[in-house]
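Complex 280.
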Amino acid sequence: MLVVDTIEQLRSYLAAARAEGKSVGLVPTMGALHEGHASLVARSVAENGVTVVSVFVNPTQFNDKGDLERYPRTLDADCRLLQRLGADCVFAPSVEEVYPEPDTREFDFTPLDKVMEGIYRPGHFNGVAQIVSKLFMYVEPDRAYFGEKDFQQLAIIREMVRQMDFKLTIVGCPIVREDDGLALSSRNALLTESQRRTALAISKTLFASVAYAKQHTLAETKQMVEQAIADTEGLELEYYEIVDGNTLQPLTAWDDASYVVGCITVYCGKVRLIDNIRYK
Ligand code: PAF
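Predicted structure with pantoate bound:
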């Protein structure tokens, strides 16, 4: 497995792979890899001639400086895992390599970026679009892999691909959970043992809400989730929205869409956790 930190090294590696007729899969990450990332990498390895994994904590998508500083960085362990998974190339550039000058591009994904994370993390998706579009331009992958845990991000990246006419397939991969239900996240590494136990209430509540939803209105189900999180000491709800899975717009009745997803963001101490669940 090759580890490179410049765009030039990356491009020359990919030119050689393409000359051999190999297709290219890209798994963009911010490192601190876990089994969720591993599932994306394994899928890319199975579907492509070569798999490139980018490991880059992208500063432009953090609207909270403390969050950026706290974000775990574990490149050596990440590379060991990626080697085992059969990745071919790790691209781990410096901030200066990716942003030799400030990226002033402004994206507009209305209405997808005007709800949920778009409200609570202003500028976040603009930063995501900046880095992901750069990665697509460097790598020119045939396929790129993203987790459904970041449900809104996935919808926005699909929209960016449409707007910018990138010629690649976006592959969305299911959330990977611990045996007890906690959605895997790099941020879980920041939880203490007791916070981790507390955080379990998030997935438990979402699972319980699916059964609850069968006998209750959408508003009642939303209220049930909000109340369960409020009743859990150590958790603070940022938002819970039940949305149309295609447009991400909040719904008021189950019959208003055929694809319905509940998206939640909760603070456990200072750690911001997101999760989602499909109702139909
Ligand atoms: O989902 C992530 O880890 C990041 O938002 C991404 C897509 C790697 C862009 O920095």
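Residues 23 and 219 are 47 Å apart (CA to CA).
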